[in-house]
């Protein structure tokens, strides 16, 4: 898969994931209660979209040696930022990110988030890794709506972003949605 | 029986349309099920508001023998009401999911109607006589003063205006945790099955306080759930056999003589997936929305999102016939996912002789396939072609770049006008097609 098609597939997968999640939430308020069949089909689509999203990201990483628009999005997602595709994002911590090989992303992201939340003890335990991380899914949720304002290019992130909790919440949303929606019945 | 499509021998023409013409359709009026009874004399519809309307076929008029009789309203009643499950804080919709008639055994008619949670047995009976001349009460029902009664008389039956009464005779409740999708009367005329997403129960028509669970596919850990039951039907002749379809596109045939719990199937019908057509939505479009046995009991038909398949019960590894309903939608699956149309559950039906099958599509189109000639036809249920005895013109959807005259392009299709429910008269070439809140009745032209 070429870099461009990988990006297209990636964008498509993200879009489908966003649509699916909104459908899942909307179904909670439907008359007659949650429909098991519909929820199952939604979770299957989300699973395929997630798998394709990750495999297309791997293809992208193979193609792009320098930091692509993907990496800032990871740290962006760590901050709970919503990114607009495929606009490149500023890298709040370029030194940390570009030095890490892709396979270590979850760890670096952990450190980044944990380091940033050192002062924000209220919202998150700084030493504990989020138990809900699922490998590559850790850096996923940039297609989710975020309540945080988007950073202007060039701006630096100073305070501990409460959005770092959102990162855990965001990606765990995927895992949550996929694995918990059915047992909710 | 003649074929379905074109030619000199056979044409479909408009007969009647029931329902309001308003542009604004009330949600409660949307028809959710259509079913002829065993003789075809009665036609029942259920709607989202929980009502059942039964139409009766009037005899042909002697003055106009070239017209088949019409269907007129026979009885209307409120079958189900909205309920609230206080324990789960869930509203239970009153929408009628299915109606199934019982074979007629006496003057009254019986049908089963179900919503998501409760099945009801209704008795529809006629009253055209009234007893008059009681000894103890007046004509208006008040008790007479005993001192005034000086003689004895036998009440006499006097004719009265026909009154059709519907009364609930049995209520089969509290047996389904999940939403009921099917009911099916057994050929023994004593039992019936009801199916929800994960379980199938067998009932006796006389007993409401218990039922047998015959299929249970609920996994111990719900996180491992991979498929649900989407439809179930009893075999038309063998009272020990039933089938159920799944969201994965498979059908299981079970024999109730084998075990009390039929979790292990006797036959497993599945067509291997074509790997080249795999997409995000492969699972959704392979989910079976309806399964129907042929009248002969030799075949069964399944409907998934894009096609109808006919299976020979003796061959499990692939269907014997596959008909594409609207293949032009395959490239539009993403948009259909976004507007929720991909979740629509289309039904299908056989004609009386099993030589033809029918199913619905979008834009108020419905499709018929002749199994012998392999011809197919697309027709439209619309007010424009609603003149009495007007012949229906075949419709065509243009898939290529060039759109011919009278063709409709895929992008012009109205996806809000969907035909999910159709029914074919058990003996004659008369069909009932539910288009949102309208019921269209078409019949063949008698030459």
From TrEMBL, chain A:
<feature type="compositionally biased region" description="Basic and acidic residues">
    <location>
        <begin position="149"/>
        <end position="159"/>
    </location>
</feature>
<feature type="region of interest" description="Disordered">
    <location>
        <begin position="56"/>
        <end position="168"/>
    </location>
</feature>
<dbReference type="InterPro" id="IPR008653">
    <property type="entry name" value="IER"/>
</dbReference>
<dbReference type="Pfam" id="PF05760">
    <property type="entry name" value="IER"/>
</dbReference>
<feature type="compositionally biased region" description="Acidic residues">
    <location>
        <begin position="102"/>
        <end position="117"/>
    </location>
</feature>
<protein>
    <recommendedName>
        <fullName>Immediate early response 2</fullName>
    </recommendedName>
</protein>
<comment type="similarity">
    <text>Belongs to the IER family.</text>
</comment>
UniProtKB/TrEMBL annotation, chain B:
<dbReference type="GO" id="GO:0019888">
    <property type="term" value="F:protein phosphatase regulator activity"/>
</dbReference>
<dbReference type="GO" id="GO:0000159">
    <property type="term" value="C:protein phosphatase type 2A complex"/>
</dbReference>
<dbReference type="InterPro" id="IPR018067">
    <property type="entry name" value="PP2A_PR55_CS"/>
</dbReference>
<dbReference type="InterPro" id="IPR001680">
    <property type="entry name" value="WD40_rpt"/>
</dbReference>
<protein>
    <recommendedName>
        <fullName>Serine/threonine-protein phosphatase 2A 55 kDa regulatory subunit B</fullName>
    </recommendedName>
</protein>
<feature type="region of interest" description="Disordered">
    <location>
        <begin position="381"/>
        <end position="404"/>
    </location>
</feature>
<comment type="subunit">
    <text>PP2A consists of a common heterodimeric core enzyme, composed of a 36 kDa catalytic subunit (subunit C) and a 65 kDa constant regulatory subunit (PR65 or subunit A), that associates with a variety of regulatory subunits.</text>
</comment>
<dbReference type="InterPro" id="IPR000009">
    <property type="entry name" value="PP2A_PR55"/>
</dbReference>
<comment type="similarity">
    <text>Belongs to the phosphatase 2A regulatory subunit B family.</text>
</comment>
<dbReference type="InterPro" id="IPR036322">
    <property type="entry name" value="WD40_repeat_dom_sf"/>
</dbReference>
<keyword id="KW-0853">WD repeat</keyword>
<dbReference type="InterPro" id="IPR015943">
    <property type="entry name" value="WD40/YVTN_repeat-like_dom_sf"/>
</dbReference>
<keyword id="KW-0677">Repeat</keyword>
């Amino acid at each position: 898969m070429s870099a461009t098609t990988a990006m297209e597939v990636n964008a498509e997968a993200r879009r489908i994931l966003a649509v699916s999640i909104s459908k899942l939430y909307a179904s909670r308020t439907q008359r007659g209660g949650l429909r098991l069949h519909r929820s199952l089909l939604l979770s299957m689509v989300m699973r395929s979209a997630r798998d394709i999203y990750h495999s297309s990201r791997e293809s992208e990483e193979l193609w792009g040696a320098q930091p692509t628009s993907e990496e800032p999005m990871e740290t962006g997602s760590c901050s709970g930022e919503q990114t607009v595709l495929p606009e490149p994002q500023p890298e709040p911590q370029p030194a940390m990110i570009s030095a890490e090989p892709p396979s270590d992303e979850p760890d670096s992201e952990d450190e980044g988030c944990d380091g940033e939340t050192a002062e924000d003890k209220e919202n998150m335990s700084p030493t504990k890794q989020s138990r809900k991380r699922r490998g590559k899914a850790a850096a996923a949720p940039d297609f989710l709506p975020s309540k945080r304002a988007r950073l202007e290019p060039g701006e630096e992130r100073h305070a501990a972003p409460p959005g770092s909790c959102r990162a855990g919440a965001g990606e765990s949303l995927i895992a949550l949605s996929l694995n918990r929606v059915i047992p909710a019945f | 029986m003649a074929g379905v499509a074109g030619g000199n021998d056979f044409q479909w023409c408009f007969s009647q349309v029931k329902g309001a013409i308003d542009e604004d359709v009330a949600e409660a009026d949307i028809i959710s099920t259509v079913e002829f009874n065993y003789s075809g004399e009665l036609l029942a519809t259920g709607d989202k508001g929980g009502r059942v309307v039964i139409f009766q076929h009037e005899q042909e008029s002697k003055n106009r023998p070239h017209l088949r009789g019409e269907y007129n309203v026979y009885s209307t009643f409120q079958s189900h009401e909205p309920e609230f499950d206080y324990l789960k804080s869930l509203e239970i919709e009153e929408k009628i999911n299915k109606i199934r008639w019982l074979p007629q055994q006496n003057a009254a008619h019986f049908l089963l109607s179900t919503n998501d949670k409760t099945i009801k047995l209704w008795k529809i009976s006629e009253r055209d006589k009234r007893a008059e001349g009681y000894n103890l009460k007046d004509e208006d029902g008040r008790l007479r003063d005993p001192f005034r009664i000086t003689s004895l008389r036998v009440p006499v039956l006097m004719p009265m205006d026909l009154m059709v009464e519907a009364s609930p005779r049995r209520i089969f409740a509290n047996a389904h945790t999940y939403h009921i999708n099917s009911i099916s009367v057994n050929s023994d005329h004593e039992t019936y099955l009801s199916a929800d997403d994960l379980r199938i129960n067998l009932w006796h028509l006389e007993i409401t306080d218990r039922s047998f669970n015959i299929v249970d596919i609920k996994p111990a850990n719900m996180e491992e759930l991979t498929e649900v039951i989407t439809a179930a039907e009893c075999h038309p002749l063998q009272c020990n056999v039933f089938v159920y379809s799944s969201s994965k596109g498979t059908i299981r045939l079970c024999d109730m003589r084998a075990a009390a719990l039929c979790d292990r199937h006797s036959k497993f019908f599945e067509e291997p997936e074509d790997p080249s057509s795999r997409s995000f939505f492969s699972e959704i479009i392979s989910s079976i929305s309806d399964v129907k046995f042929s009248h002969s009991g030799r075949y069964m038909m399944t409907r998934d999102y894009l096609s109808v398949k006919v299976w020979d019960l003796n061959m499990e590894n692939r269907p014997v016939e596959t008909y594409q309903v609207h293949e032009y939608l395959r490239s539009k699956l993403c948009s259909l996912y976004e507007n929720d149309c991909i979740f629509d559950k289309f039904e299908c039906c056989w004609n009386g002789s099993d030589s033809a099958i029918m199913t619905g599509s979008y834009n108020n189109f419905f499709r018929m396939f002749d199994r012998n000639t392999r011809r197919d036809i697309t027709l439209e249920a619309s007010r424009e072609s609603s003149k009495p005895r007007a012949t229906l013109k075949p419709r065509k959807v243009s898939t290529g770049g060039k759109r011919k005259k009278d063709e409709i392009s895929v992008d012009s299709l109205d996806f809000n006008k969907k035909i999910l429910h159709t029914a074919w008269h058990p003996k004659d070439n008369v069909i009932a097609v539910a288009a949102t809140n309208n019921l269209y009745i078409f019949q063949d032209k008698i030459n």
